[in-house]
Amino acid sequence: LRAPCLVPCRVFSPIVSPIARTVLPGGSVVVNSCSSAAEQLCNFVCDCSDCSDENQCGYLRGSAVLGTPFTCDFEDSDCGWQDVGTSTYGWVRSRASLAMWGTGPHSDHTVGTDLGWFLVTTSPPAKTAATAWLRSPEMREAAATCEIRAWYHLSGSWLNQTERPVLHLAVAHRDDVVGLWQSPERSSEGWHQLVAYPGRITEQFQLIFSLTQPPSCGAEVGLDDIMFRNCGLPGEQQACGAQESRCHRGSCVAQHRFCDGTDDCGDSSDEDVAQCKNFIRCSFDHNLCGWEVVAGPPVWGRNTSLNLGTSYSVPTRDHSNNSRAGFFLHVDGGPAAQAAGTAQLVSPTFQASDSCSLVLYCHLHGSATSNLSISYVTSSTQQLMRERTGDLGSCWVRERVDFSVTVPFKVLIEGVAGSGGTVAIDDLILSQGCLKEQGELVGSVPHPAPPVVTLPSQAGASPCAADEVACDSGDCIAAELACDFADTCADGSDEKHCGTTTFESGAGGWHDVSVGQLRWGLQKVTEPHSFLTVFLCPGTSLALQTGEGQMVGPAKARSPLLGPSGPACTMEMSYHIHSDPQGFLAVSVADHTTGSTQLAWQTQGRGSPAGGHVRVPLGQRSRPFQVELLALVDLQGAATVSVDNVTSEQCYLDVVSPTAAELSCNFERDMCGWYQDLSSDFKWVRSTGQGQGSDHTTGSGHFLSVDPSVPWSHGQRAQLLTPLQEPAAAPRCLSFWYRLAGPQIGTLNFKLRPEGGEEVVLWTRRGTQGSIWHQAWATLPATGQQRYQVAFEVLHDGFLGDVGLDDLTQTAGPCGAELSCSFEAEGCGLAASGKGTWQRQSNGTGTTAGPAADHTTGTAAGHYMVVNTGRVSLPVGHTAALTSQPYQPSVPAQCLAFWYQLSPGTPGSLRVFVEQSRVRTKVLSVSTMEGSSWHRSHVTVQPDGDWQVVFEAVGAGGDHGYIALDDLHVSDGACPEPASCDFEQDTCGWSSPSDPRLHSLAWGWKSGVTLTKYPSPEQDHTLGTRNGHYVHFDTSVLGARGTSALLESPPLPAATDSCLRFWYHMDIPEHLSRGELRVTLHGALGQRTVWSVPGHRSRGWQRAVVPVQSPGEFQVRGATLGCRVTAGTYQPPRPHLPLQISFEITTRRWPMEGTVALDDIVYSAGVGCHSSPKSPVEEKSSGSFVAEVVLSLLLALVIVALVAAGGWYWLKPRGLASRTPAESNSPQGFDNITFRD
């Protein structure tokens, strides 16, 4: 078949019947188990008892995840969809990539994580335009009610460009390819829903997705969750209802749907020619059938889709034949046409009648302001009977109007196409009660006598231009000033019909855009005893009613175009719903700037009357947007839905909330003026934890949280904003408590947004910081004369984790020295001095030679501080200093830790001083470094008062060189020995690798307080209480694709006889014990496993002792549950890498439920395992722990004494009491320890 140029032309192969088969390769999906005939396959009707005749049809019989029939979610297969392109640019089934944001979908739509599957375009050519083609299997017999829904994802730099790729959906039927849908002109990144209506299709057809992108576009498009709703022909029924008639095939159809131009029966028996002979149908295929086009402009034009091109708004086929060659009438929108008035089509004059009805099919698409109205006109009046406004989508919508007029009349059809839109009509069908004057039928030759009814003149209909609207006073204002929540007209009439209404004087601007058998309409409640008045005041409300459309789906009403709105904007309304649980009422917001629609609120039926008053936050939005009311219930019973008393509160853009200037908040009562950026992909939620832990304020109160794993949280970003703040003349300090937990949580940013300027990141943290509250500070700079906003932003790396925020406090003056600094946001107040210049940079943007990646993120985009130590920049003996702000100690000892890197060759030396009262004490000096990785150093500081740290680089005369610093951290308490840690204060340099290419999941750090979301031991080992801390990992989050969870020590010096001691806790069910925890040495000479233990359920904490010997510098690396399927796992090059040690759990079974925890790691350098270890900390703060040890020792001594006495008493007569056992070379004091080379 030759594809017409609705989409770029190419040649398709003929439609081929599906190959009969019983089982798919691999045996996963059964096809046609009952051997149905070919004509019964893929017809949206289950003929086999297991519905296997509806598998691999472009859909499966159902989605187990979504619970919807005739759906392809791509989780198990491609459902028969095939890439039919002829180039490398095509479609593949794939999963998301979390390694590089901005290069495609980062989750599927079905499950909302990186583990879900979808189709995505791949390998676009760089310099030429190309088209990716995707074709479904053959399908059969789509009903007139058929609705296709799918979700598509757009990504790429092209989103804001004028030359953009367009995604098309078309149907190939017989010898034609007809477009059903194309992506809108404005789009934003993320998952969007498409809805297409193929209409009644007989026999065989296939669906075709195509994406054509311009050269160098670089677009990626994903497809997921393709659903087919109400596509099967109606089944045979035993009995028909009172208002129904039986079709020849046994199904039942409402009587008023007979002879309406649509094959509702599925065998066309409801459109039988003999039965419908007295109905007059005008398809416009040959002429206007006696209807008259009133002179314009604009005018109704008779045309076909073949002649109208591929514009977004024009019909792609007619209704009569579902063909591009069929005729219809249309009027196109544009500034000139809109300014000229309204296109009018008028019927002949009809006799007075109470049985005349008109069925027509209308098409309104491309503009929210298009309008179609149907009226009757007599010699004295004009009465509006039906009106459709807005964008109904790319489909033909059935409308029916009944006329009961006591005098002769004409039918007047008026069309106004909004800018960029099209209004079209087809298949005007008049019932047999519509008789022309003089007794002639409408289809006869027009009578030569002048009409008895004349149309009213359009002169002076509007004094305003096309881009203006009229006030009631007659003045004209710009159209964008109407419904902007502020009075522009002197009489306020520009805000009169903008959605705020009691419905007593009309719809208040709300208009029905339903296309199915339900619609919204005004309804009067007069009975005071009616149960509706329990929730709604007596009077008129907007209610769900029976509609005239042919589709089966929710009713939808829209407000006028609104905006812009302010951050506090809220819509309030009263509502009533009486429905079973399948019914619902919802509010959504259609944002025409981004082309997206977001659900704002919803409620479901409960089986009994329910309702109330609800506040729906709309938030800050650009113009234009529209609010939508959606409802779905079964009106055949007692079900009802009504809405009343709609108001908009604080929606004007410049409205200032009473708490807008207050940044401080503990979130116990409300949000304190902070609000959710509704354009974000997922949300901040005020809650009390729900398994994530308690708040910081009281331990049982409220805080804000973000959880990207909740259903339908797609995308990367969640933002929390303040309203615009007044200019700040002086800097201030914002203190806050945060929590970053989970193995994939990503980044928390605090940003400043000057009005009209570029936003600035003031503070940032990346990666898990444990399920523990941390305090942070950020200085808000003076902003001069600029107003500003501040924002907390979450950027997640995956879907495993959560973020908490609590106890925000703003104080005057700048903050003090930062206790933790990654240099990702700024230089943290460190001041540079001396000959050379320290500068903050990343490898991707820096001008000075430096490390290829920072330590914090492990990427070229990460930032660090670096100084050029080459002889030109820093001559021999010259210094470059970097000095911190003063630290104010609260305990006798503090631990200063940082990461550093020296270039190969002659980098000079790094000297570190602690300065108190202008007296410097050198604590570190290093001039060479083994390997090219980051090294960690720490020093215990015991200050008498405020102190500062000074990093000093000294030039050595090399040609080139650098010294770099990253991740500066000051914590309370003395520093432990290198690689030793009890995890009470922090993780002591132990960390999960940040290199995104490793696809590694991070270990968590928490106390024993039970969290539903993060199962782990209830007590630590150090203190033996719920308040003690340890590191842990939940093995159930690991996938089957070679993911792992690594825990690395800082680099350690060479050791010939060292010892690693630690305590571990495992909770892995015995039937899933095909995994192991192991310790592995990694170094320049390779890797070696030195200890392992099978997965099991341990009875409490278990002790392990591992000898460590290495001729070179090394690291301890720990990994949890790296699946043994490692063929695709990335192993980064490690030139000159020091030796490392890993904690690692491997498994040959997935999923593997369980947890692993580590505590009290003690590394003894240069001391073998036969010696007593040093404690990882100087003191234990828990008296209960000491008491427990003492009691345990006393009990052990008593038991030993009793056993010895009894043994001596028993052995003495036998002469065996003096026997001395031989010494054992095996480890003492613990079991299940395995050493491995």
From TrEMBL:
Keywords attached to this entry: Disulfide bond, Membrane, Transmembrane, Transmembrane helix
Coiled coil: none
Domain of life: Eukaryota
Disulfide bonds, paired cysteine numbers: 240-252, 247-265, 464-476, 471-489, 483-498
Biased composition (Low complexity): 844-853
Stored InterPro entries: ConA-like_dom_sf, LDL_receptor-like_sf, LDLR_class-A_CS, LDrepeatLR_classA_rpt, MAM_dom, MAM_domain-containing
Protein name stated in the entry: AEGP protein
Transmembrane segments: 1189-1211
Composition skew (Polar residues), residue ranges: 1221-1231
Chain segments carrying region Disordered: 834-853, 1218-1237
Residue span(s) of domain MAM: 70-233, 280-436, 481-653, 663-817, 819-977, 979-1171
